[in-house]
Amino acid sequence: MMSSFQGPYFYQVYASKTFGSSSSAVVTWVSRLFLTGFASTALFGPLVGRLCDSYGRKAGTLAFSLLYSLGAISTKSNILGVLLLGRVMGGIGTSLLFSAPEAWLVGEAGKEGVESSLGETFGLVSFVFKCLMIVLSMLLSMPLSEPHTIYTQSTSRHMLEIQ
């Protein structure tokens, strides 16, 4: 979901940290940070599912919010251990994200007796979310990718002639 939008941002954040004297050391540690996040999602996923079954989906959803927020805050640190811990928290939060909120919604719909509206609800949320994310990512990516370029039709034509 949102993780695919975060990749370039987090790469720049981690690449700006100094983990060693050479640029190859920075690239190595950035790679390890990303791998730590992906590995923690895979390793803790089954445990997270069981904990959600034991403590409830609402608690899982709240834990996702807390862990993901702490993982995001950890990017402000220049300490490698804090960054690694933040990636682990983000990975566990991602596992919670892909299990707890939807299960909580389905459980609550069952309690309220409105299971028949779940298909419409998930379809509408998916459609609106995807449309908003496409528009938002396009709008945000233009000034971030080339902050000093103003895009006009003549700029596009000139760029095509250069290539």
A few lines on this structure:
This protein is mostly helical and 163 residues long.
Features:
163 residues; mainly alpha
Can you describe what's shown?
The chain starts with a helix and ends with a helix. It is flat, with a radius of gyration of 20 Å. It contains 7 helices and no strands. With 163 residues, the protein is mainly α. The chain has one domain. Helix 3 runs antiparallel to helix 5.
What is the element layout, followed by pairings?
Blueprint: H1 3-15, H2 23-55, H3 57-73, H4 80-97, H5 100-112, H6 118-145, H7 153-162
Helix pairs in contact: 2-3, 2-4, 3-4, 3-5
Distance between the termini: 34 Å
Beta strands, count: 0
Report the β-strand fraction as a percent range: under 5%
User: By helix and strand content, what is the structural category?
Assistant: mainly alpha
Number of domains: 1
Q: Indicate the mean pLDDT.
A: 79
Q: Please bin the fraction of helical residues.
A: over 70%
Task: Kindly provide the radius of gyration, computed on alpha-carbon positions and rounded to a whole number of angstroms.
Answer: 20 Å
* Biggest sheet details: none
| Poorly predicted parts | none
Shape type: flat
| DSSP summary: helix tally | 7
H and E order: HHHHHHH
